[in-house]
Design goal:
By secondary structure, this protein is an alpha+beta fold. It contains 4 helices and 10 strands. The N and C termini lie far apart (about 100 Å). Keywords: Hydrolase, Membrane, Transmembrane, Transmembrane helix. This is Sortase.
């Protein structure tokens, strides 16, 4: 009987005795491998480069993550008492005196709607007095007639020069910054560094409407002290 079964198995191409073909071992290995990966991924042991869950950190920001800042629902949130948010911006050299908003949203459409009320601080940027970069952005427009003047909030930012003073007010204090540079950049390519290793910085961003839809003005300033 044993000889008969062995003969039948051989005729049908089935493995005999313990000599299983290599493809059986390969198939078993593949099944075990993917089962193990699936189990490890479910408890967070799979590197994000493998399962595609990697996300960018908050120490830099692509300008493309901001609204266009030149075209005609944000959510508020509360911070600990130790965090000082910018409340008002004063730049005497170009007659700017505007309130500053502090939304929690990163949604471009919501931020665009919010900017109808004036400049806004980006949620992941530094607060006043902290090490890091306080990023504030607002609209610019060079249209001859604009119903909402907040579309022209940062129109005169490009007129500032190195050494000009910017005062940001918050919690009854005034924080003085000195302009170090003004440049233009493409929103699809430029990155704003928000790292605390930079020291205490201020960055203002607005649209360069005369150049193109993706062009931005970027003003950088260093913290000088409190007034």
């Amino acid at each position: 009987m044993t000889e008969y079964n062995s003969h039948i198995s051989s005729e049908k191409g089935l493995p005999t005795g313990r000599q299983a073909p290599k493809r059986v071992y390969l198939a078993a290995f593949i099944v075990v491998f993917f089962t193990t990966i699936s189990a490890a991924d479910s408890i967070g042991f799979v590197p994000c480069q493998i399962d595609g869950t990697c996300s960018a950190g908050t120490e830099s920001l692509a300008l493309s993550s901001l609204p266009e800042l030149g075209t005609e629902q944000a959510t508020s949130y509360e911070l600990p008492a130790s965090s000082i948010l910018p409340e008002r911006m004063k730049i005497s050299a170009v007659d700017i005196d505007l309130p500053v908003q502090n939304p929690s949203t990163r949604d471009i459409a919501a931020l665009d709607e919010l900017l109808k009320n004036g400049p806004a601080r980006y949620v992941d940027s530094a607060k006043l007095g902290e090490k890091g970069n306080v990023l504030i952005f607002a609209h610019s427009s060079h249209l001859p007639v604009v119903r909402n003047q907040m579309y022209k909030a940062f129109n005169r930012i490009p007129e500032l020069q190195t050494g000009d003073s910017i005062v940001i007010e918050g919690d009854g204090k005034s924080y003085l910054y000195s302009v170090t540079s003004i440049r233009t950049a493409n929103a699809e390519e430029a990155i704003i560094d928000l790292s605390p290793t930079l020291g205490k910085k201020l960055t203002l961003v607005t649209c360069d409407t005369l150049t193109g839809k993706s062009s931005r003005y970027i003003l950088e300033a260093d913290f000088v002290g409190t007034l």
